[in-house]
Amino acid sequence: MRPSGRSFNEMRDVTLEPGYAKHAEGSCLVKFGDTHVLCTATWDETTPPWMRGEGKGWVTAEYGMLPRSTHSRMKREAKNISQSGRTQEIQRLIGRSLRAVVDMKKLGERQILVDCDVIQADGGTRTASITGAYVALKQCLDWGVTQGIIKQSPLVDSVAAISCGLVNGAPVTDLDYAEDSTCQADANFVLTGKGGIVEIQGTAEGDPFSEEQFTALLTLAKNACIELKAKQDAAL
Q1: Per the annotation, where are the binding residues for phosphate?
Q2: How large is the angle between the packed helices 85-99 and 125-146, nearest 10 degrees?
Q3: Which residues are annotated as a binding site?
Q4: What's the pLDDT tens digit per position in 37-71?
């Protein structure tokens, strides 16, 4: 039995509230159980200096956790000289995930800046961020079409993410903190709506896991991302 009482293939309650932030071109408050993340997407008519003149755009992301998003207060990274390695790794993952479903030439020489701010953390903040960020991104790109800045949305697919792992030897979907901190293996899966694989991050915490166990985790992830896509579509 899982600590939460969920079945092995059951996600936490997932909600996506688009348009949550008044001023952003796109936004979404995403909740995976007790993990809550505010995702906003900002339209920017410039591109990074290294991309200028290439005739295509860019999508990038920033990620952060509020001081009391966890059990004890975290120091604000803004007060530090540099971001932690974890923060940099997660925001790069979010950016890669979103760029995988955008035709940059159709976006033109402009960029979308996505911010994912963790309000409350209970495991799976990166997967919740990616799932909510897609909703914010689509809203932002639709805004660009409505404003007549671009003729059509450059989105070519949707993207969502889920964590799966081995808990007490059994493969399970959507780890919360209690499971993530004690599991034998965990993996984050980033999958597109058409079933493409953007990225898989998998780690054994003790003994190596088998190919059969990995296949079981991938199957759980695929089914979960189908559910997440349906929730994204309904929210939009």
Answers
A1: 86, 124-126
A2: 40
A3: 86, 124-126
A4: 999 999 999 988 888 889 999 999 999 988 777 78
